[in-house]
Amino acid sequence: MSTKQLNDKIIFGLKVRQLRQEQKLSFAAFSNATGMSVSYLNEIEKGKKYPKDDKIAILAAALNVPASVLTSTKLPRSLAPVEDLLQSNFLQELPLDLFGVELPKVVEMIANAPSKVGAFIATLVDLSRNYALAEENFYFGALRSYLEMHNNYFGELEDQVDAFVKLHHLPTGMAIHQNTLRRILEDEYDYNVLPEGLKDYPELSALRALFVPKSRSFLLNQNLSNAQQCFQLGKELGFNFLQLKDRALTSSLLKVENFEQVLSHFKAGYFSAALLINRQSFIEDLKHFFASPRWDADWLPSLLKKYDATPEMLIQRMTNLLPEYFGVEDIFILRFVHKPSTGAMKMDKELHLNRRHRPHSNALKEHYCRRWLSFSLMRDFKEDETFKIGIQHSKYLQTEDNYLCITMATTVAEDRMVSVTLGILQNEQSRQVIQFSNDPVIPEKTVHTTCERCPLKDCAVRAADPIVVREKEKFKKVMNRVESLMKD
Prior knowledge:
The protein is α+β, with helices and mostly antiparallel strands. It folds into 3 domains: 3-133, lambda repressor-like DNA-binding domains (434 Repressor (Amino-terminal Domain)); 149-276, Arc Repressor Mutant, subunit A (Orthogonal Bundle); 324-472, no CATH class. The protein contains 20 helices and 9 strands. It has a 6-stranded mixed sheet, with helices on both faces. β4 and β5 form a beta hairpin. α13 (226-241) packs across α14 (259-276).
């Protein structure tokens, strides 16, 4: 069914429902007046049926309006937000099927309370405008919810990777050589891989890779590390092996066309990480890592070398496998970008599994708590350092939540650092699995979310005044005074 046909049904049903209710006609009375069954009229109002011309004439007569009023695609002013929604492609673009939601159910909700739904839609639009949210924000938000709902583990993609490895006789307990991935792309998929393909295009220096379909050329950024190049090659293999057609041609999504594109890039990236860090091999590595009663700062760097992986790939694979194979579900990932010349710190990626955890990007233009290891590790970089790893117990202020945080930070450009943190909520299950979590050498810090919301006194690394806390205290005093006056 086309979008237009669906919208016509919804609009027709909304009009019939509104006119019937305005005339205070029950379904029974409406049925008697039209000679149509109550169930059929109900399906019309829910946007499931569009009657033929003769029945439209009967409906219009029963509602005391010309037939043209019902067949017009214009809705009354009170339903203008709903009309805007239907005229856009929003309903069709929503990945409802991923969440087990059927489109007719959404239509039914609109039919049951069109004014309330209209107000809700208008509110969403206003919020998106006020906070400068683009369409892709909703798509990426939907993807993040989808990953969190599945604990960031996708067995069907893991199985596809296993099939690919078997087909091409690839190693599983060591790094896959870049030339091997390149050869498969060139021999199997007729690619022309150019390791320094973007060198002559300075305006594309921010891109990691670009695929040119006409010449089947895959242009890589010459500044990528071997691990980064392997990831891009693996991702391109993922697009082809998984037959993902709806995709952008750039390594990152510069402009999002639809949700399917966002999902395709996620799947290709998951494929690449699972290809380069084999599931079974990595599970055995993690078992050895977690079995140690003492924190070993050299273990994760040794795995980076073993798989020739980036810190983000390694932590991503840990979040894929911890819930599924170790029963450790309360975890999160945070990625921060730091610009030393300005001191700017920005969270640009987060993922929360099993529930929404304390550390999250809960406000715009606020200063994230500098007591998190994500920041202190980058702040303490020495001039000749390019990589650091650290561990910390992060006790969230005024709560019982304590997270074991493992952070790896790297220098990725002249004035740019990136840190990736895996946070594991300390509970009976995680302590049982991760034997070193009680190692006394691991420091503990009290943390919060943003400086503006933190009531902690005498914080040496505070980046902003606690203005939100002060406003809350001021409001509390006002309310207390009002209550005391009411008692006098």
